[in-house]
From TrEMBL:
Stated name of the protein: Protein nucleotidyltransferase YdiU
Domain of life: Bacteria
Function per UniProt: Nucleotidyltransferase involved in the post-translational modification of proteins. It can catalyze the addition of adenosine monophosphate (AMP) or uridine monophosphate (UMP) to a protein, resulting in modifications known as AMPylation and UMPylation.
Classification via Pfam families: SelO (PF02696)
Residues of the active site: D244 (proton acceptor)
Family, similarity comment: Belongs to the SELO family.
Entry-linked PANTHER family: PROTEIN ADENYLYLTRANSFERASE SELO, MITOCHONDRIAL (PTHR32057)
Residues that hold Mg(2+) according to the record: N245, D254
Entry cofactors: Mg(2+); Mn(2+)
Length: 472
């Protein structure tokens, strides 16, 4: 594997050179064979992969750096954040011809570590590793990871845990907050250089355009709106939609206290430190918009003025609605939109919310005879179901065909928190088999996998009491 160092080449205004600080006795927990193929590293032994993930082996051409950024956290601007525990090794070309960043997460102290220890623990690393794959398999743009390691290095959170690290792979680790940093510190040449870098690397067709910043803002707005629409459609909550966790490419990044919704709750809050519900499930679309306005403010010095910035981001609601409406139509098995459809959807969402019906199981069972068993208030359900049947009868395809097409968009296997917790508990006792089993299962979310039927069941009672720790 050979690396280039295009981001490091931007110079010390953008990042700081750092050396990874390896963990003690690294042990490979899991290797993502999809990414092995993508990065053509099938010739790496397990030991080499562990060394790579532990920062002990830097591939030829790599120049480890940590990136500076800032951002709005829970609506409050924090002037300097940066990679406090992440180290970008460099970039490498994938077998698809795309240039990917290789970034270690949990590799030790950096100039941006502030009060942190530069480390990540096993449970949070497993969560990030698996959820990147879960979302990717659902067709949602996201960072992913090549592998993850555990170690003997003690790391202190609420208790002693073990240090772990992840080798994150992404088309970009540039965040809205990266632009905010240069804008708020009035480093406008750097801001412009950053736009040029992103355009040259990801949107070369705009290289000669006069309005690169405007194009970028418009594209980031569209991609963010569509990514959030995809989250909503699968019932996924990010939990910490700070502007430093918003990728300029509209990819899902930073898996913290995220959660797939089990029993549907429109106002579900997966982050237990989010006291006011800023990042509640139903607020995600608006927060995505809010973050786009933070990006617009950051890019303002490179735009024609406020009016242009506003014009560009005000497309967000229509980008979101268009994408979300098309995803919902497909989830309900409808090929086109008809008057009354959104009321039909709203009615069943309200019923599911009131009864906390399992979101994923409902959609997977839609159109099938046993659907009514999911509801307590049968009359209310039947009243809705009659309307739905009438609507489905207007479709050109047969019910069998509709059910088949719905099973391509309504997953059976999702990465529920309780499944993750079982895998984490085992891994913390040295058994990584459940992590690897889950990886296999969530890779095929839409397929029937009879041997793993129980992984599609509704969660056990104890899942409702699970609180994902925010210290990671
Ligand atoms: N243990 C730690 N040591 C040093 N810095 C940390 C640590 N945990 C978080 N940070 C820093 O605090 C800020 C916010 O943390 P957050 O949890 O959102 O990000 P993260 O999970 O570390 O990183 P990323 O966004 O790259 O996935 C980031 O600047 C991050 O680097």
């Amino acid at each position: 594997m050979k690396l280039v160092h295009t981001y490091a080449d931007l110079g010390s205004t953008f990042s700081s050179h750092v050396q990874p600080q390896p963990l003690d006795t690294p042990e490979l927990v899991s290797v993502n064979q999809d990414i092995v193929q993508l990065l053509s590293c099938a010739d790496f032994s397990e030991e080499q992969l562990a060394q790579l993930c532990n920062g002990e082996m830097i591939p030829e051409g790599g120049q480890p750096v940590s990136m500076v950024y800032s951002g709005h956290q829970f609506g409050v601007y924090v002037p300097r954040l940066g990679d406090g525990r992440a180290i970008l090794l460099g970039e490498t070309e994938g077998s698809d011809g795309v240039l990917y960043d290789l970034q270690l997460k949990g590799a030790g102290l950096t100039p941006y570590s502030r009060d942190g220890d530069g480390r990540a623990v096993l449970r949070s690393t497993i969560r990030e590793y698996l959820c990147g794959e879960a979302l990717h398999s659902l067709g949602i743009p996201t960072t992913r990871a090549l592998c993850l390691i555990n170690s003997n290095t003690p790391v202190y959170r609420e208790q002693v845990e073990t240090g772990a690290a992840l080798l994150r792979v992404s088309e970009s680790h540039i965040r809205f907050g990266t632009f905010e940093y240069f804008s708020h510190t009035r480093q406008l040449d750097a801001l412009s250089q950053l736009v040029d870098y992103v355009v040259e690397r990801h949107f070369p067709e705009w290289t000669d355009a006069d309005d690169k910043a405007a194009n970028l803002l418009s594209e980031a707005t569209r991609r963010t709106a569509e990514m959030v629409a995809q989250w909503q459609a699968v019932g996924w909550c990010h939990g910490v939609m700070n502007s430093d966790n918003m990728s300029i490419l509209g990819h899902t990044i930073d898996y913290g206290p995220f959660g797939f919704i089990d029993g549907f709750n429109a106002v579900h809050i997966c982050n237990h430190s989010d006291w006011h519900g800023r990042y509640a499930f139903n607020r995600q679309p608006d927060i995505g918009y809010w973050n786009c306005s933070a990006l617009a403010s950051a890019l303002l010095p490179l735009l024609e003025g406020k009016e242009q910035a506003e014009d560009l981001i005000k497309q967000y609601p229509s980008f979101f609605s268009k994408k979300y409406a098309s995803l919902l139509r497909a989830k309900f098995g409808l090929s086109s939109s008809k008057e009354g459809d959104s009321q039909l959807f709203d009615e069943v969402f309200q019923l599911m919310h009131d009864e906390r019906t399992d979101y994923t199981i409902f959609f997977r069972a839609l159109g099938k005879p046993d659907l009514q068993d999911l509801f307590i208030d049968r009359d209310r359900f039947n009243s809705w179901s009659n309307k739905y049947e009438k609507r489905i009868a207007q479709e050109p395809s047969s019910l069998d065909e509709i059910i088949k097409s719905m099973s391509q968009v309504n997953p059976k296997y999702i990465l529920r928190n309780h499944l993750l917790q079982i895998a984490i508990n085992k891994a913390e006792n040295g058994d990584y088999s459940e992590v690897n089993k889950l990886l296999k299962i969530i890779r095929q979310p839409f397929s029937e996998q009879p041997e793993f039927e129980s992984y599609a069941d509704s969660p056990p009672d104890w899942a409702g009491d699970l609180e994902v720790s925010c210290s990671s």
